[in-house]
Amino acid sequence: MSRRGKSRDSRYIPNVLRLIREHRSFFLGTTLAALALRLFFVVYFPAVTDDSRIYANLATNWLQHGIYGQTQGGQPEKPILPTDTRLPGYPAFLAGIFWLFGLGNLKAVLLKQILVDLATCLIVADLARRTVSERAARIAFVLAALCPFLANYAAAELTETLEIFFTALALDCAAAALGRMDEAGAGGGVRRLWAATGAAIAACILLRPDGGLLLAAIGLYLAVLAGKILASNAHADKKNVANLLAAGIIVAAVALAPLVPWTIRNFRTLHHFQPLAPRYANDADELVPRGFNRWAKTWIVDYVSVEEIFWNVTGDKIDPKKLPSRAIDNSNPAERDATMAVIADYNEAQDMTPELDARFGKIAAGRICAHPVRYYVVLPVLRVADMWLRPRTEILPPDVRWWEFNDDARHSVMAVGFGLLNLAYVVAALLALVRRPSRIRWAGLLVSFLLLRSAFLGTLENPEPRYTLECYPAIIVLASSWLGRYGQRKPA
């Protein structure tokens, strides 16, 4: 068959499937290795956290009683109160699995997440194929399939695996739509791709409120493209601005549509306007220690402090000895005494009252006034750096203070190894942007998402490394571009 005939026949086969067909042994072997890695984590390191129990309780009550709410105190005989503290995406996923395989069937949940994560690897490969080359696609598939960070969270009853899947899907659909627009302008196929992009973003938002950052990133990128066209003064290309505007409207409308019934439900059931979920996942009558949180943001930069200090409030004592030196300005005796006094008063009852919270807030206000640049610039940058560069072992056995090497030798090796591997992924992605950005089609789409999400994460009090995992599809694609820099780019 001639090259022309082969190309004509391939039009009807998605190119990623053609790629798999042409490299069957490679994809089969890598998939089996990926499956083995994920099963290893499921068998030896399954993770059930407090958040996992909340999600499972929501799913069970929804399935059994038709109430999207939590059982008070975790006691079956207690009443079920409707809530909006968690968006319904992940509880719906759990409810479907519980309906099929039995209530509380954690094993079924994790096995299903393995399948989702394997699908993510294929989508990331397709994204690399569209934006870089087929060589990069194969490299990206390996990087995703053998990534222990993704595999680790497939063994956790948390939102991360699904969130990463739909993030990758949204980026891939957006890249496909941009490629189709480059070829044929705005047609029905392009509109369907943009609608698919919006649907994937909607799933991200229904899983976690910060999924909306992906919508902002795509909207920003489309706006930049439209601005470049307008600035070029090329009259023939002005119609493309309308196409980009239509694309943005389609994506936004589809992405936000599922929030309408959720918002209506919250208004009718809970009697307040809440289109997403509360910032601190709190019920309406629950005290949010905003003063304490603000005080924590005046010094916290690492995950160690999240585990040792931040999560202790309320319910556990704060150990002043575990506070880093930056938490207290020893050159200011009044601040030092006030801080020690409020911590001592909190430790007596281990309950955050409005009065104690106000005292923490007063200390925070003084610290912010004295060092505004540190609070608004330096600390957010350090928090983001910690989330990006810390070994991703937060739900694995290694001690949170891994650098002190006072843990089991195997755990220390795991922490160092994970840290170096994470650094390799990030450095490879940065090298692709610094050395050969021209090889990446629509690189601005990936970069805008990475920057917007990182900027948002810097505003949080709790720098948890898992919050950057949603960025890994983009990181892997960029890294594959650098590692496959000798390959030839092929059209999408």
Would you give an account of this structure?
With 492 residues, the chain is mainly alpha-helical. It has 2 domains: 14-271 and 412-483, no CATH class; 299-370, no CATH class. The chain contains 21 helices and 2 strands. The two termini are 22 Å apart.
Please specify the SSE layout and strand pairing.
Blueprint: H1 3-10, H2 15-22, H3 24-44, H4 50-65, E1 69-71, E2 80-82, H5 89-101, H6 106-131, H7 134-145, H8 148-154, H9 160-184, H10 188-207, H11 212-232, H12 238-256, H13 259-270, H14 290-297, H15 303-308, H16 333-349, H17 354-370, H18 372-389, H19 409-435, H20 443-457, H21 472-483
Antiparallel strand pairs: 1-2
Helix pairs in contact: 3-6, 3-7, 3-8, 4-5, 6-7, 6-9, 6-21, 7-21, 9-10, 10-12, 11-12, 11-20, 14-17, 16-17, 17-18, 19-21
Distance between the termini: 22 Å
Query: Which strand order spans the largest sheet, edge to edge or round the barrel?
Result: 1-2
Order of helices and strands: HHHHEEHHHHHHHHHHHHHHHHH
Q: Shape, please?
A: globular
- From the structure provided, what is the oligomeric state, counting identical versus distinct chains? single chain
Helix/strand/pairing class, anyone?
mainly alpha
* Radius of gyration, taken over Cα atoms and rounded to an integer in Å: 24 Å
What would the average pLDDT be, to the nearest integer?
91
Query: Helical proportion?
Result: 55-70%
Number of helices: 21
Can you summarize the main beta sheet? 2 strands, antiparallel
Total domains:
2
| Unreliable sequence segments | 1-13, 487-492
Number of DSSP E strands: 2
Q: Per DSSP, what share of the residues sits in E-state strands of 2 or more residues?
A: under 5%
